[in-house]
């Protein structure tokens, strides 16, 4: 084991122990490790943004780019300037412009991606689940595909019904006894089952990932100790 | 012109309207009534305010007007019939029918909790209090104060009348003037004007402003504030800031630059009236506060230490089990059947990759999940490296660039390894969008300024998305599948992201995917010998079994504890 490996291995070992010390409750070592990670992350992020964003996309085009490149930089520079001016209390309203630009652009990209990348393709997939040609493409699996489509449709409608927030209907025309339509009540129960299964699956996944992270840490610490004492 | 007054909101509507323009209430049964404008014309002789005061809220003007009319009528009565016993203004008020619009404004002021309505309600409340007390606290209400002034002025005037024997002459005499009027002026702090007749009367009204009227209301008639003082500072309490009073329109020239002064007045809070219900609530609140502040025995220390020990023991058991599986058990072969259809699809795509292909690798995971991602990725990457694949990396996580460096450093022994870095994008949606736009356009134009990089002319043979979260992977899938429909997307994700991303594979947006250690073990066994993942897989199985057992034990203890608590509560 080289000196470099020894030092960093020791640092990793100690930090792992400091984090695991939370098992006996909140303590100084755990807080120290937490502060260390947060500080390192903030510092690393600053360096990363300077090296990967500000230098290549702002400084380099100004110093060595063409006039067209420099002209394009007027817009971001102006937005940066407005954002900096927002720190002055009297000019704080000017900061709304770059923030509005940022939020509007992000929302536009997110909505566009959600519609064309998720909503339409997923809806199309549900519809395709009832394509007879697809059912009988493999005759042995026809019933499985049909059942697949039915379950998928039931889950989709049930989940949407569970989140039905429309106006409640009057029950028997009597005010004060308004209830959801019975069909939505029934479907929402089905939706609850699907949502429960989904959340349970997600929880199991989170659990599995956390356990694997623990296993990896134990493995790293164990390997360090083994190498420290001359193991091969 | 007659109008229709909405019974719900009081808004004016045209005569032909069937529904209210404001609240859409039915106006079919509403009888027409004269408009406010026509009523104002009719009441013009009563409108003695300066023009500028019409800008003030209608409510205040209406209240002030009402009080002024009352006072004026009383004064006129005193002038004309000094010896006649004039009734109290309540009787006069009872006989007066205020216009409908004024009645509505008063009703709304009584009901609404705006700034003006609150003041009015305070005044009304104070008046009711004074009435309830049977006149004991006459100084409190404005009317009682006015009444007292009037009585005093009337008595004085009657006394002077007896001395001079000619009231009409004395009323028109400027210097001799009515003593009651002088007293009223003195009480109001008004300097009498030199002009007599109507001008003198208007001059009096010039000082009798809305501000003074309000101030006197607040002070209950005990204090009169000089109007043109620049500053009047009270002892303490609420600070009133109002504009300077304006002269009557048409009588004095108005200028735009009105002087503004500040008056600080002593505010006397109205007496509180507490109902039985409110008193009961206050008592309950007091009891709660006392109960919260009561000293209680501290929790037993042994119970806390027991929890601490239990937690440590349970964690120690899990760690010991994992350590045993990792380091002390024999290597076992991976079980069959770990490969899922989506894993098969990924393997098929990897095996079909041509030599010298270009692959884009997206790093969208944190360092904490690197072990799980590496289990799934390393076997796939090693297969690609053997085919002299050119890699391009892009990251949307903070540690993405370092993780990419570390991952590809394990293939440094391979000759001709070609890895280019596109850099870090703070937001995945921007990175995905710009990548999709630039990769799909002319490479000469698409190369970002300041970057020594060109996208492959023929595009990428495939894109590998390495992610630890559903949200991060979804953003990349959405943008790339929408803007680069021909791109081949493959997912290598953690177990927590896998289930939510499976629909993208089922819909065909994603070609293949691997999630979690179990699928990674299957892929590793198919591509390599599976030994690198087998150890983790075994420890994972042990850990899962132990945690399930601990959960069951915990549930049993929790049920038992709940039963004990219920028994204790019942006892």
> What global shape of chain A is seen?
extended
Largest interface, C-beta closer than 8 angstroms, per-chain residues: A-B, 52 and 61 residues
Largest sheet of chain B: 6 strands, parallel
Placed side by side, the strands forming the largest sheet of chain A appear as 1-2
Q: If you average the pLDDT of chain B, what whole number results?
A: 70
Overall structural class of chain B, as computed from helix and strand content, comes to alpha/beta
Poorly predicted runs of chain B are 43-50, 78-95, 135-139, 164-177, 192-207, 222-264
Oligomer: heterodimer
Strand content of chain A: under 5%
* Main sheet: strands, sense, barrel of chain A: 2 strands, antiparallel
Number of strands of chain A: 2
How many angstroms separate the termini of chain A? 10 Å
What's the Cα radius of gyration of chain A? 29 Å
Poorly predicted runs of chain A:
none
CA gyration radius of chain B, whole angstroms:
45 Å
Gross geometry of chain B: elongated
Series of H and E elements of chain A: HHHHHHHEEH
Topology:
The complex is a heterodimer of chains A (232) and B (571).
Chain A: H1 3-20, H2 28-64, H3 67-72, H4 74-85, H5 96-128, H6 132-135, H7 142-162, E1 169-171, E2 174-179, H8 182-228
Antiparallel strand pairs in A: 1-2
Chain B: E1 2-5, E2 12-13, E3 33-34, H1 36-42, H2 58-80, H3 89-95, H4 100-111, H5 115-132, H6 142-164, H7 167-172, H8 179-188, H9 197-207, H10 210-219, E4 231-232, E5 239-243, E6 260-264, H11 276-293, H12 301-328, H13 341-351, E7 358-364, H14 370-385, E8 390-395, H15 400-409, E9 418-424, H16 428-439, H17 443-446, E10 462-467, H18 470-483, E11 489-493, H19 498-506, E12 512-515, H20 516-527, H21 531-570
């Amino acid at each position: 084991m080289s000196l470099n490996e020894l030092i960093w291995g020791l640092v990793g070992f100690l930090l792992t122990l400091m984090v695991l010390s939370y098992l006996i409750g909140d303590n100084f070592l755990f807080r120290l490790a937490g502060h260390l990670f947060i500080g390192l992350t903030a510092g690393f992020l600053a360096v990363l943004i300077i090296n990967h964003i500000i230098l290549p996309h702002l400084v380099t085009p100004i110093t060595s780019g063409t006039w067209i490149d420099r002209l394009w930089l007027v817009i971001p520079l102006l937005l940066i300037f407005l954002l900096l001016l927002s720190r002055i209390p009297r000019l704080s309203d000017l900061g709304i412009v770059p923030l509005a630009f940022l939020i509007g652009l992000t929302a536009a990209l997110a909505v566009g991606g959600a519609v064309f990348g998720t909503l339409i393709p997923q809806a199309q997939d549900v519809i395709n689940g009832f394509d007879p040609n697809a059912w009988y493409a493999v005759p042995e699996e026809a019933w499985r595909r049909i059942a697949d489509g039915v379950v998928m449709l039931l889950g989709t409608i049930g989940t949407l019904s569970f989140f039905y927030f429309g106006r409640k209907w009057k029950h028997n025309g009597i005010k004060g006894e308004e209830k959801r339509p019975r069909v939505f009540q029934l479907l929402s129960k089905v939706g609850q089952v699907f949502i429960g299964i989904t959340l349970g699956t997600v929880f199991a996944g989170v659990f599995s990932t956390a356990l694997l992270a623990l296993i990896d840490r134990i493995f790293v610490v164990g390997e360090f100790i083994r190498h420290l004492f001359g193991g091969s | 012109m007659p109008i229709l007054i909405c019974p719900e909101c009081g808004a004016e509507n045209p005569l032909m309207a069937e529904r209210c323009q404001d609240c859409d209430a039915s106006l079919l049964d509403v009888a027409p009534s004269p408009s406010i404008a026509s009523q104002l014309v009719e009441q013009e002789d009563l409108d003695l305010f300066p023009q500028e005061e019409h800008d003030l809220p209608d409510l205040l003007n209406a209240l002030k007007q009402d009080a002024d009319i009352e006072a004026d009528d009383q004064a006129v009565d005193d002038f004309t019939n000094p010896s006649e016993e004039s009734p109290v203004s309540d009787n006069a008020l009872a006989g007066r029918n205020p216009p409908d619009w004024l009645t509505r404004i008063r009703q709304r002021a009584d009901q609404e909790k705006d700034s003006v309505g609150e003041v009015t309600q305070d005044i009304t409340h104070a008046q009711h209090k004074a009435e309830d007390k049977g006149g004991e606290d006459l100084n409190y209400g404005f009317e009682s104060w006015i009444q007292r002034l009037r009585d005093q002025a009337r008595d004085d005037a009657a006394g002077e009348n007896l001395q001079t024997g000619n009231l009409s002459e004395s009323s028109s005499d400027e210097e001799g003037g009515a003593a009651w009027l002088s007293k009223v002026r003195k009480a109001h702090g008004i300097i009498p004007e030199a002009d007599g007749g109507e001008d003198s009367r208007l001059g009096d009204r010039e000082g009798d402003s809305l501000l003074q009227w309000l101030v006197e209301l607040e002070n209950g008639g005990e204090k009169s504030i000089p109007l043109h003082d620049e500053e009047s500072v009270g002892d303490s309490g609420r600070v009133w800031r109002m504009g300077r009073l304006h002269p009557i329109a048409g009588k004095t020239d108005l200028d735009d630059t009105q002087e503004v002064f500040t008056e600080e007045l002593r505010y006397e809070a109205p007496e509180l009236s507490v109902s039985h219900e409110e008193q009961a609530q206050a008592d309950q609140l007091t009891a709660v506060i006392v109960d919260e502040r009561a000293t209680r025995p501290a929790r037993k220390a042994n119970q806390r230490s027991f929890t601490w020990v239990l937690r440590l023991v349970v964690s120690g058991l899990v760690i010991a089990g994992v350590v045993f599986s990792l380091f002390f058990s024999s290597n076992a072969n991976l079980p069959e059947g770990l490969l899922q259809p989506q894993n098969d699809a990924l393997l098929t795509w990897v095996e079909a990759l041509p030599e010298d292909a270009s692959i884009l690798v997206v790093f969208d995971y944190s360092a904490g999940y690197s072990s799980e991602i590496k289990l799934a990725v390393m076997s796939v990457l090693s297969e690609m490296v053997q085919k002299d694949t050119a890699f391009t990396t892009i990251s949307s996580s903070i540690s993405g660039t370092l993780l990419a460096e570390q991952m590809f450093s394990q293939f440094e022994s391979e000759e001709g390894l070609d890895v280019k870095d596109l850099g870090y994008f703070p937001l995945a949606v921007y990175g995905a969008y710009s990548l999709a736009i630039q990769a799909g356009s002319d490479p000469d134009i698409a190369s970002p300024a300041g970057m020594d990089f060109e996208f492959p002319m023929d595009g990428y043979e495939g894109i590998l998305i390495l992610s630890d979260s559903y949200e991060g992977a979804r953003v990349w899938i959405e943008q790339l599948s929408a803007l680069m429909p021909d791109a081949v997307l493959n997912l290598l994700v953690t177990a927590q992201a896998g289930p939510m991303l499976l629909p993208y594979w089922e819909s065909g947006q994603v070609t293949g995917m691997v999630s979690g250690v179990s699928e990674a073990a299957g892929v590793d066994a198919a591509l390599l010998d599976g030994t690198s993942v087998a150890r983790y897989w075994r420890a994972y199985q042990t850990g899962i079994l132990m945690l399930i057992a601990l959960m069951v034990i915990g549930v049993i203890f929790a049920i038992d504890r709940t039963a004990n608590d219920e028994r204790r509560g019942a006892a």
